[in-house]
Amino acid sequence: MMVTRVAVIGIIVENLDSTEQLNAILHRYSGYILGRMGIPYRERDINVIAIAMDAPQDVINTMAGEIGALPGVNVKTAYSHVITRS
Known about the structure:
The chain contains two helices and four strands; from the N terminus they run E-H-E-E-H-E. The chain has one domain (about 5-85): Alpha-Beta Plaits. The protein has helices spanning about 20-30, 55-70; strands at about 5-15, 35-40, 45-55, 75-85. By secondary structure, it is of the alpha+beta class. About 25% of the residues lie in helices and about 50% in strands.
């Protein structure tokens, strides 16, 4: 039985050189991603990204950890109380 959770991951990219690596990570986990919104904040030279996911908690944690390890990238995760068992 697989247990999944709905979560939102907030990402702030301050080092735009990390964008290619970030996109590669998101591509690897694309099967779990429900949607993605990216906002380039040109006046501050940063990008703000929100990712909605439905995945096992360990997958969400692993992806967030990989993203947070990128230079100049900050990440926070918020979990809903919606849990699905299949």
